Automatic annotation (TrEMBL):
The chain crosses the membrane at residues 12-30, 36-55, 76-98, 142-162, 183-206, 218-239, 325-352. Its main location: membrane. It is found in: Cell membrane. This is Proton glutamate symport protein. GO terms for cellular component: plasma membrane. It comes from Companilactobacillus nodensis DSM 19682 = JCM 14932 = NBRC 107160. Signal peptide: none annotated. It comes from the Bacteria. One of its GO terms (molecular function) is symporter activity. Keywords: Cell membrane, Membrane, Transmembrane, Transmembrane helix, Transport. One of its GO terms (biological process) is dicarboxylic acid transport. InterPro entries: Na-dicarboxylate_symporter, Na:dicarbo_symporter_sf. It is a multi-pass membrane protein. SUPFAM superfamilies: Proton glutamate symport protein.
Length: 409
């Protein structure tokens, strides 16, 4: 009896990309007709984005017991937000300096939907974070306003549930979120077809020259990830005085798991076990910080979105001012709160943030060819930053067993 070979979603997307390139180069006139298939795929992803973002953020915040929002959890949330915004900022700096989007020709690719935002005052930018009508924000797809509403709603939900001991609404929300994630997962099963159509139509118009420069984007993204991890390790060793060689060795298995699976959820059991048994982080810290980190701390996602938005802008020859770059950093940080735990999460994330800057959603197709490598980089930074955060919190709360840390090797 022959055993069926199961190809991962990333593998299917990679195959689809290769086939799309071949068809686009071989059947140029025919491939242009495939664009409608790709457009339908993108719209199917977008139709659930607002509900996905709202549900994930409300559930993450609503799960926190504000009545027991003690010193440790306050420290955790501060570290999460600070590290995510620094990751997004570092990614933006790398792209601004090295400009991976320059030299990528998009002549022939749709650019008539580009809306370059006009410069606004700082007070206007801040005030626009807050919605006056959440339904209007949802209909316009204003993600930042939706996230701000979701955070406030989540705080109110948490206060209500934990003060009345009635969790029915939170439980219903969790079930609803599972349905939305299932819907996105079902849509992502046709991702290879959608990516094939988008790549084939783009290659048919532009040729192979549009794909090859993506390697520069990937190299810069990889460099940004590695240097940010080094920054994290330096912070940990300086603050805690732990040996950095032991730190790297004790995190090796979980880091390899993150790279191999490209999934934070799949890596979580190994991450939790090694954090306690190799790094010496005590249960009371590891369980809380790592569990919260799954939804509230996504350094890799924040960096990915920041880098990609600016790269796309460079591809289309759009230049932003400093204020807009800072808005992008904040947008990427807030959007990372809604990091989707589904196959092809990188594509889902881009569908959230790209339209917010008035950039063509079709540009997402250009990044499909490096999706698997992007997933590796996103995941290792997401996972390792959660662990680093738990070490910092443990250090502040006498939660590290140094004997375990040094004797586990």
């Amino acid at each position: 009896m022959t055993k069926k070979i199961k190809i991962s979603m990333s593998g299917q997307i990679l195959i689809a990309m290769v086939l799309g390139i071949i068809v686009g180069l071989t059947f140029k006139s025919f491939s242009s007709n495939l664009k409608i298939v790709g457009d339908i795929f993108i719209k199917m992803i977008q139709m659930g984005i607002i509900l996905l973002v709202m549900g994930q953020v409300i559930e993450a915040v609503g799960n926190i017991d504000l009545g027991q929002f003690g010193r440790m959890i306050r420290q955790t949330v501060i570290i999460f937000f600070t590290s995510s915004i620094l990751a997004a900022l570092w990614g933006a700096i790398m792209v601004i300096v090295f400009k991976p989007g320059l030299g990528i020709s998009i002549k022939g690719l749709s650019d008539n939907n580009i809306k370059v935002g006009q410069s606004m005052s700082f007070s206007k930018v801040i005030s626009d974070f807050f919605p006056s009508n959440i339904f209007e924000s949802m209909s316009k797809g204003s993600i930042v306003q939706v996230i701000v509403f979701s955070i406030v709603f989540g705080i109110a939900l948490s206060a209500f549930c934990h003060s009345t001991n009635e969790f029915q609404l939170l439980d219903i929300l969790k079930q609803f979120n599972k349905v939305i994630l299932k819907m996105i997962s079902l849509i992502m099963t046709i991702a290879p077809i959608g990516i094939f159509a988008l790549i084939a139509s783009a290659i048919g118009k532009l040729g192979i020259k549009v794909i090859i420069p993506m390697m520069k984007y990937l190299i810069i993204y990889g460099f940004a990830t590695i240097t940010y991890l080094v920054f994290w390790i330096l912070c940990i060793t300086l603050v805690t005085k732990l040996n950095f060689i032991y730190l790297i060795k004790n995190m090796w298995d979980m880091s390899l798991m993150a790279l191999a699976t490209t999934s934070s959820a799949v890596t979580f059991p190994t991450e939790l076990k090694d954090t306690k048994e190799k790094l010496g982080v005590k249960d009371k810290v590891a369980q809380i910080v790592l569990s919260l980190g799954m939804s509230l701390n996504s350094n890799g996602s924040a960096m990915h979105m920041s880098i990609t938005i600016i790269t796309i802008a460079q591809i289309y020859g759009i230049k932003y001012d400093l204020q807009t770059y800072m808005y992008i950093v904040l947008l990427a940080t807030l959007a990372s709160l809604a990091n989707a735990v589904v196959p092809g999460a990188a594509l889902v994330s881009l569908a959230i943030v790209v339209p917010q800057m008035g950039l063509p959603v079709e540009s997402i197709a250009l990044f499909a060819g490096v999706d698997w490598f992007v997933g590796m980089l996103r995941t290792i930074l997401n996972v390792d930053s959660d662990v680093f955060s738990s070490i910092l919190v443990a250090h502040k709360n006498d939660g590290i067993d140094t004997k375990v840390f040094y004797e586990s090797n």
